[in-house]
Amino acid sequence: MALHAYLSSGEESQQQQAVEHLRNAPAYWDEVVAITRPLYRDMKLTHYNHNFYVPNDDNLFHWALIRDEVARDVEIAAGSKAKEAH
What we know:
This protein is mainly alpha-helical. It has helices spanning about 1-10, 10-35, 65-80; strands spanning about 45, 60.
């Protein structure tokens, strides 16, 4: 929400808030991984195919497998630029 607010308004404090929240996200994500890894195997999810419509049998899901994507969210938020006023 903070990132969206920044992108819409250009208010830099919102961007800073988004980056701060996202910096904390990997630690929470690691908790999800620690809880779910013993319970769930990597699973095939046809709807988790990165917007491709061709089935991919190697496209497995587990929270641990997308942890790098969660960590990259900080870079995305920090590098985002607000829309310029028209």
